[in-house]
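Hey everyone, long-time lurker, first post.

I ran two proteins through the pipeline my lab uses and got sequence/structure pairs for each. Pasting them in order. The first:
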Amino acid sequence: MLWARFGLYVADPTPIHSAVRSIYAVNQLGFGQLAAVVHLLETMVSPGEDGDALSNAERKAVAKADEWLKHNQPIPHEEVLAEFGLTMADWEKMGQEPLPEETSRRNG
């Protein structure tokens, strides 16, 4: 077994194989690509402000909304959209259209 030649005796060599493959791939990257991969990995292992953790203000807002729902009926999405002069069809169409900054980046 290949792993035994290196003194690695494991029941499942898949994680080691993946690690070796990733090291090999990283060694093939240029400086700019490597910087991008490092940034991606750092984002994955330590979520920042945009991570899944809620701030105290967000926790309070969720608690306030939960308390409100104990005493009130939920407001249908269609009703909220109507307050802005929109329909569900408008909402669905908006969901398919790119944001303005996405369009300019693609074309620029």
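...and the second, right after it:
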Amino acid sequence: MLNEQFACLTPFSQIDRPGLAWRTKGAKVKENINPEDKWSRQVIGAAMEVHKHLGPGLLESAYEECLCHELAASGIPCERQKALPIVYKGISLDCGYRLDVVVDDSLLLELKSVETLLPIHEAQLLTYLRLSSLKLGLLINFNVPLLKTGIKRMVNHF
């Protein structure tokens, strides 16, 4: 009888939350996910797969190579070490800046293998987002025992 009383309620895990799939009783699942969020979920899954196999302690370049291999194997379009010119007073200058990984020209990945993420790492990602006019970035530190503690999602508010 108690179960019948609450049969019309939607479980908390299915309550409408912005950016996530939502469901109401008897309705089909509706996707409310923008492209950057779709890619970020898949990239985080790929990064976790890489971390599961390699663990912490390697150089950033090793994680970058393996992550890009994992992304390509999953059919996720990405570009490594993309040049980032600086526009100064209307002139584009190549100052040697490189974006670690750009996914589908919409998501920036800044990879690290450091003991602790510092505010300067966050500032670097935000600056790269602003200069590249990208909206969403992930700062991923592979040098942690549990990868989810090494991921920061940052948004460029233009």
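Reply from user beta_strand_b:
Welcome! Quick read of the second one: The longest helix spans residues 35-54. DSSP finds four helices and seven strands in the chain.
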